Amino acid sequence: MQFVEAHGAKIPAIGLGTWELSGHSCARIVEQAIRLGYRHIDTAQVYYNERDVGEGIRNSHIRRSEMFVATKVWTTHFAPNDLLRSTKESLHKMRLSEVDLLMLHWPNAHVPLNETLGALAHARELGMTRHIGVSNFTVALLKQAVALCPEPLVCNQVEYHPFLGQSNLLAACAELGIAMVAYSPIAKGTARQSEVLTRIGAAHGKSPSQVCLRWLVQQNVPAIPRTSRIERLSQNIDVFDFVLSDDEMREIFALGSPEGRLVHSVTEPDWD
Ligand SMILES: NC(=O)c1ccc[n+]([C@@H]2O[C@H](COP(=O)([O-])OP(=O)(O)OC[C@H]3O[C@@H](n4cnc5c(N)ncnc54)[C@H](OP(=O)(O)O)[C@@H]3O)[C@@H](O)[C@H]2O)c1
């Protein structure tokens, strides 16, 4: 497994997303993923599966120190006391003493950002999380957050796949030493419909989804694909034995456009 380093955090380059997984099947997928070599699991308070994710991690019998567990605080918990209380609840559900990464899930203009970031940093000081980050922040919001946060932010988790260009945000993250983590990295499963990705994949004996993930790995962008199918778990982590050429990388970059965005939220910012 490769890692992406940012402000002391070592983020495994491929993780398992868990949105829309729940119950026993979620615990089983998480356990199986860890057995297959995944060391990074992404959940969130609003996925209502933190208990199942924790169960899957325990059932795998992996040493806690080998895992990178990330969760996200939901926007209704951004007042400082709510952030700390809800993080405590998340830890209780997962039966963990700390997570590796605690993120703000989306920006929330209704609570002053400095207060929320102060509480996020406080959660770190209290030992609830090893690292802190944000998600769905634009370049402007990210710069504001870095200026206001008393502790370094290690990541900005955003939608990124070949059909959605993110060059401005990538450049800003690089400048700030922050990892950009890609969610929906295989475009919610639609990568397989792309003729370009299929052709490039065929040249390497790989699927279009694997091409997407490899394209991200080669940009130093950790990716968290989600699957509910055990047979796809191994496929999604099997992206470290081939290399896309510069021409192939360029051809994939050319598929990106602002219209490629698939994930929306009622509180979404003015995207870059
Ligand atoms: N921070 C945020 O606001 C935010 C927003 C969205 C997502 N996320 C995180 O990012 C994770 C991933 O994003 P996502 O779930 O939206 O999308 P995704 O990982 O791009 O795609 C998931 C879809 O692709 C299919 N799939 C998985 N592996 C495949 C493969 N090898 N070949 C073909 N199809 C495949 C899955 O179906 P099967 O289950 O049938 O395999 C599922 O329908 C989420 O689970 C969540 O942890 C974060």
Automatic annotation (TrEMBL):
Gene3D superfamilies: NADP-dependent oxidoreductase domain
One Pfam assignment: Aldo_ket_red
Catalytic center residues: Y47
Source organism superkingdom: Bacteria
Domain NADP-dependent oxidoreductase, chain residue ranges per copy: 14-252
GO molecular function: methylglyoxal reductase (NADPH) (acetol producing) activity
PANTHER family, A to Z: 2,5-DIKETO-D-GLUCONIC ACID REDUCTASE, NADP-DEPENDENT OXIDOREDUCTASE DOMAIN-CONTAINING PROTEIN
Family statement drawn from the similarity comment of this UniProt entry: Belongs to the aldo/keto reductase family.
The protein's name in its UniProt record: Aldo/keto reductase
Organism: Rhodopseudomonas palustris (strain HaA2)
